[in-house]
Amino acid sequence: RVNVTGVEWGVNQPWAHPEKTAQAIGALLEHLIKTKGYTCIKDWTLTNEPNGQFFTQGGDFDTFVKLHRLVKEEFNRRGLNIRIGGSDDAMSFPWLARCVTHPEYYNLVDLFSSHYYFSIGERPFFGNILADCVTLVNKHAAPLDANARPKPFIVGEMGFCDARTKPPLDNPFMEDYEYALLTQSACIEGLNNGVAGFSVWCMQEIHY
């Protein structure tokens, strides 16, 4: 399944007109799915790692919620069965918590996602961090709806580095066999701790 994710880095004030933005997103996905036939598109995320770029480009949390509301209405109007991904934070438990504990936002999205990058020395803590994220998402389902099932929490990006890494792009570690074992074991540990899934990004040799 494919998740269409917005990346507006370098665009001046991309959130200034939420209604037009929502209409454009709806038109894009309708074209891709109904006209071009890309039925593999199942999910949509507003913007990559919003706890960083979204605010630096003039956004605020109220606008963040409003955009999700407008896009969901647009999807419904166009008859698009698309799951909406929430949070998509860059290593920010506070941002994830803000999204999860906002009643309207929680009800607008269908799943929650976070991105995590660690040094090899931090790998032992990864399972506990993911378990905390899953617990956070799960415990806020019942107060909103006693019959609600907890929404899935997934890892949208993940990677590791060692002492050889030279930011932003040089990471020889990802070419080692040990890296492949490390990432696969991290995925298995996450699944055992209640994570609903990992994107293909996490399975490949990727680290900025």
What this model shows, in words?
Strands 1-2-3-4-5-6 form a 6-stranded parallel β-sheet. It has helices at 18-35, 53-56, 61-77, 93-100, 103-108, 126-139, 177-192, 200-203; strands at residues 2-5, 41-45, 83-90, 111-119, 153-161, 197-198. 42% of the residues lie in helices and 18% in strands. It is built from 8 helices and 6 strands. β5 (153-161), α7 (177-192) and β6 form a beta-alpha-beta unit. With 208 residues, it is of the alpha/beta class. α1 packs parallel to α3.
Topology:
Blueprint: E1 2-5, H1 18-35, E2 41-45, H2 53-56, H3 61-77, E3 83-90, H4 93-100, H5 103-108, E4 111-119, H6 126-139, E5 153-161, H7 177-192, E6 197-198, H8 200-203
Parallel strand pairs: 1-2, 2-3, 3-4, 4-5, 5-6
What are the defining features of this structure?
single chain, 208 residues, alpha/beta, six-stranded parallel sheet, 8 helices, 6 strands, 18% strand, globular
